[in-house]
Specification:
mainly alpha, two-stranded antiparallel ribbon, globular
Amino acid sequence: MNAGDTVFVLISAALVMIMTPGLALFYGGMVRNINVLGTIMQSFIIIGIISIEWVLWGYSMAFGPDHGGIIGGLDWLGLRGVGMEPSSDYGSTIPHLAFMIFQCMFAIITPALITGAFAERMKFGAFLLFTVLWATLVYNPLCHWVWGVGGWMGKVGALDFAGGTVVHISSGISALAAALIIGRRRGYGSTAFIPHNLPMTITGAALLWFGWFGFNAGSALASNGLAANAFVVTHVSSAAAALSWIFMERLHRGKTTSLGAASGAVAGLVAITPASGFVGPVPAIIIGAVAGIICYG
């Protein structure tokens, strides 16, 4: 066991945790004033819901001993057998508990990402039920497929360094499905839905950018060169995407916006996540620049 790696992973877990309040501010600034507290509360309470779900059964389903490449068993229910000694499969230089809590923060922010798709349109009780069911039936199995030892997607060679599939594709597709099922906001097309507080949104984007260093660099699970590379490419991809987004705004609308810069930065962070352990700085700039252009379009 390595003390430096342990500290690094625990700090990275804390950085990823900060991303969820950052997301709350990012979304909260874009809704109407009447709904800002409800929107922020959704992200905040997810920290509580998923933390308990992850300890009781989520971690075991995602990373427990494999069953047919589909799901982890319940051997680690309630973190039974998950202790202070390293796991030979998940982070051999850090306590198993450190790996567990790092992955817990990923499990927290993923359903929080979906909340932007139904902002202002779902009752709190229904939201709580949706969150628990989605984490159990969607996130945990998918996490096992890609990152769990024996998962079928990992076996066929899927490369996802820090959550492109497990976090972003899963939440993106689920958000689209939720938006289609729930439908448009009342008054859509006849009422102007103006973001009520863009400084809040910019602050949220900045916290996301900051926390993403733990998200990607921490996925190296060690304080080493791979972590340093992931840190650097994460930063430059986001920077490139923010610039390419506002460049497209300038060409299209004749002016740039703060919301555009924030949106571009987040687009670059999302785009580089699965590749952050596999590419260098210049390819990361290209990935970020292309992501900003495509997401703007």
